[in-house]
Amino acid sequence: MPWCPKCRNEYYEGFTVCADCGCELVEELSEKKAEEKNGLLSDEDKMRIMSIQAIKEMQNNQELSEDFAEEDDTEAAENVKREHKGTYRNYKEKAEDNKSSAITLLSFGIVGFVVIVLAALDIISFPLASSSKVIIYGVMGAMFLMFIIMGFVSAKNAKKYAKEANVEDNLSSEIRKWCDENMTKTYIDKGLFAEDEADFSEEAKYFKRFERMKEMISNHFMNLEEEYLNRFIDEYYQEVF
């Protein structure tokens, strides 16, 4: 079909002149013009759109990277904070754990051992073959006896930890009293942050304050266990700040 080279209008067969501009029609347009006529983009337009899409993609990736970086910083801050706090279990907690274990082991062991003894004396019976009773009762009796022994060991440890807990509580009270008298919020922050650090997040401030408090306590109270000190400072920090 003929085309107008100027208006780019398509005509039916038999037309030779454009009705709009009067130009002589041609059999076909150039490849580039035909693509434009058929609704396809030119190479220049394609390159322009690809460039815009690439710029937008770079901006989106940058925003995502910044978001992930912020999440990583927050997660890292929480991890360091947990490391400062540590996993220290004081002697009071150890005493309570051992006391609870002692009660459970002794109760289960004594009841089980009594049942095995009664079964061995045929006071109570279980549907077991006579040939296997001796082995089963022997194994079960030894197991329950082991529970009883472990229960006594846990009870002994609970008493030992309870005594050490009193010593630890006295030490904590002494450190807390000294901190109340010498470790105020103003004194801790004095000269700790530079001008460009004034807008630090609370997590970032926590780290610097933590180290300052740790240094102050360590200089006054020697040979403190590090995990014990970390936990004490983390708990006391909540009261000060």
Structural class: mainly alpha
Low-confidence stretches: 32-41
Q: Tell me the major beta sheet.
A: none
Please trace the helix and strand order, writing H or E for each element.
Answer: HHHHHHH
Range of strand content: under 5%
Cα-based radius of gyration, to the nearest Å: 42 Å
Supply the key terms.
single chain, 241 residues, mainly alpha, 7 helices, 0% strand
What does this entry look like structurally?
With 241 residues, the protein is an all-alpha fold. Helices cover 71% and strands 0% of the residues. It contains 7 helices and no strands. The protein has helices at residues 31-37, 43-85, 91-120, 130-182, 185-189, 202-220, 226-240. The longest helix has 53 residues, at 130-182. It is flat and about 120 Å long.
SSE topology:
Layout: H1 31-37, H2 43-85, H3 91-120, H4 130-182, H5 185-189, H6 202-220, H7 226-240
Helix pairs in contact: 2-6, 3-4, 6-7
Concise synopsis of the structure shown:
The chain is 71% helix and 0% strand. The radius of gyration is 42 Å and the shape is flat.
